[in-house]
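Design job #97: recover the sequence.
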């Protein structure tokens, strides 16, 4: 069964650690990543958090990357393409030997946060074994199998999915609202407080899953 694994990897175990050390305010977000031979990767990634001149100078001095090319300038963030030529073993293993897809990869502070889709859960075991063999740290935070239940696809419990779906269907998110939280609670047979907490947690979980914005554990 397809499985999504989320976790963090020390920046020292992946490319661009030099840039993150030199400019701690930087944030890298992978837009797309492909293999480029056996010993390199060629990602397109968004960079934000510093001045363009400082970013280009730091990337130019980063020993883990080569052929850095600016693709787009959007005032406060920039889209770059480059080759990762060092510290790429873990990502190459995921993409090739484990047949995985990197859904999200965000580098900030001293760590990279990854979300990886494996065609089968057993393939993640190969990544786990690879990390142990090569003394790499991949600290897993969640493992979620994709099944027919739509709630699980978005990191929600069944109860959270139910209240979000009901709220959307009944117009709770419309302006003005077409149904009150109290009415939603009555229809679901729960208290007003329970409905409020469930809806808040469901919204938070959905936003985190879709936008990948939870940076707990990053320094």
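Job complete. Output follows.
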């Amino acid at each position: 069964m397809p499985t999504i694994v989320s976790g963090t990897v020390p920046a020292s175990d992946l490319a661009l650690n030099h840039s993150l050390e030199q400019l701690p305010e930087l944030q890298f977000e992978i837009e797309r990543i492909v293999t480029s031979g056996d010993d390199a990767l060629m990602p397109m990634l968004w960079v934000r958090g510093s001045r363009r001149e400082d970013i280009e100078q730091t990337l130019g001095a980063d020993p883990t990357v080569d052929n850095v090319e600016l693709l787009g300038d959007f005032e406060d963030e920039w889209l770059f393409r480059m080759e990762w030529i060092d510290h790429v073993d873990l990502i190459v293993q995921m993409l090739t030997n484990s047949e995985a897809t990197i859904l999200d990869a965000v580098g900030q502070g001293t760590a990279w946060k990854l979300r990886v889709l494996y065609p089968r859960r057993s393939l993640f075991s190969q990544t786990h074994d690879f990390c142990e063999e090569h003394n790499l740290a991949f600290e897993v935070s969640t493992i979620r199998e994709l099944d027919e239940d739509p709630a699980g696809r978005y990191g929600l419990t069944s109860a959270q999915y139910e209240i979000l779906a009901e709220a959307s269907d009944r117009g709770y998110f419309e302006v003005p609202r077409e149904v009150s939280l109290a009415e939603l609670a009555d229809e679901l047979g729960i208290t007003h407080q329970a409905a409020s907490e469930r809806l808040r947690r469901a919204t938070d979980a959905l936003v985190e899953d879709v936008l990948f914005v939870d940076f707990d554990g990053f320094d």
